Amino acid sequence: MINFKFYNPSKIIFGKKTEEDVAKEIKSLGKSRVLLVYGGGSIKKAGLYDIVVNKLKEENIFFCELSGVQPNPRLALVYEGIKLCRENQIDFILAVGGGSVIDTAKGVSVGVHYDGDVWDLFLGKGRHKNALPLGSILTIAAAGSETSNSCVITKEDGLEKKSYATADVIPKFAIMNPELTYSLPAYQTACGCSDILAHLMERYFTHVTHVDYTDRLLEASMRTVIDYAPLAMKNPTNYDYRAEIMWVGSLAHNGLLNTGRIGDWASHKIEHELSGIYDIAHGAGLSIVFPAWMKYVYKENIDRFVQFAVKVFDVNLPLENKEEIIKEGINKLEEFYKRIDLPVYLHEVDIDDKHFKEMAAKCCEYGPVGEFKKMYAPDVESVYNLAK
Predict the structure, then answer these.
(1) Based on the domain organization, do 252 and 325 belong to the same domain?
(2) Who has the most CB within 10 Å: 80, 84, 359, 380?
(3) Residue 159: is its pLDDT beyond 90?
């Protein structure tokens, strides 16, 4: 186990009707001028928008709105949010939605007091000095952005998708009511569960030894997603099923399960190029990339992959036949994705090899990706080919 620092100050407010506490939570932080960030019309159709707005008004909190956030959130909207914050002396950002909404809010947060182009931060060409505090009301269990220190934004020009991480964008509070996810289409629920599972697997595949405690936590978390995703899709208004998924989604990405170990993250970066160019759902891209990545890298640490197959998917084959155990584990992962109606090959989403070289080059533009195996552009291209 390696040295680590764990810091996550997010206040978790979990349960039914907790969204009604939002204005009081903002006031308790001494804030009074809010940028309300959300996506399309779903929070209005569900009545959540009215609840939030009425609660803000009851507490005499000024607010202005930044709406229209899309999946794979766009840089142009971050620029718009920065402008609104500066013009209205905003002192707090409230994100109501899923990971794309929260990531947009985070991009705005670090950009308001940054003198240059906020995109510089995502390119590693600058660091912010101050960030506006933010809070979140979660409407989809997926990205874990409601308690994480990172965000991902897509620049439309060039179709670049980049991340930025800092403790300053960890939300001050995360309001999490599983009831708010009842109306999600099954496909969105599936994509969210795929994202959660990927966050867990990125951390699980490590060469660091003597991390048994976090191994067990990760294995239990992966099994929870695998067990409850199909149940939630079949029973979308079952509170208990939704609650299990929502809670594991936050713990998967708040830093706790990364303690003492070094995660990989190549699969996420490889997928970012897919969704950057083709605008597919992040979770669907991950269900395609992750099995292909596994097939390409498993020989780097065979015992780690055997452990995954046995502990997560209960593969029961003679232990001397390690390669067969690993192949069966990957097969079971693909079967899980298929069970929740997600693709496992690129041809299922009509993506051919036209941009493989381009995507691989962009993925490795600043050097190799991944820690489990250092992946250079030819390696990344091989993963795309395995995923055809």
Answers:
(1) yes
(2) 380
(3) no
Q: Is the dihedral of CA 43, 49, 51, 52 positive or negative?
A: positive
Each residue of 71-111: pLDDT tens digit? 999 999 999 999 999 999 999 999 999 999 999 999 999 99
Burial 115-149 (b: 16+ CB within 10 A, else e): eeebbbbbeeebebeebbbbbbbbbbbbbbbbbbb
At which of 150, 180, 210 does a domain end? 180
Distance CA 369, CA 10 (A): 29
333 and 241 part of one domain: yes
User: Given 139, 164, 180, which residue is the final one in a domain?
Assistant: 180
Q: Give 226-240 pLDDT, tens digit per residue.
A: 999 999 999 999 999
Q: How many CB atoms lie within 10 A of CB 46?
A: 15
The per-residue pLDDT for 132 is 98
Q: CATH no. for residue 297?
A: 1.20.1090.10
Q: Are residues 61 and 81 in the same domain?
A: yes
Cα–Cα distance between 387 and 347 in angstroms, integer?
Answer: 8
Instruction: Compute and round to an integer the Cα radius of gyration of the chain.
Output: 20
Within 13 Å and on the Cβ side, how many CA atoms surround 158?
Answer: 10
Are 156 and 231 in a shared domain?
no
CB distance 108 to 87 below 8 Å: no
Cβ neighbours for 373, distance < 8 A, ≥ 6 positions apart? 266, 296, 297, 300, 379
pTM of the shown model: 0.95
Asked whether 372 and 266 are in contact (CB, 8 A), the reply is yes
Residue 323 has pLDDT above 90, yes or no: yes
196 and 173: one domain? no
Same-domain status, 201 and 343: yes
**Model confidence pLDDT, tens digit, residues 232-279:** 999 999 999 999 999 999 999 999 999 999 999 999 999 999 999 999
Q: 373-385 in b/e burial notation, b at 16+ Cβ within 10 A? A: bebbbebbbbbbe
The chain-wide mean pLDDT, for the chain, equals 97
- Asked whether residue 133 is assigned to any structural domain, the reply reads yes
Instruction: Give the structural domain span for 328.
Output: 186-386
On whether residue 246 sits in a domain, the answer given is yes
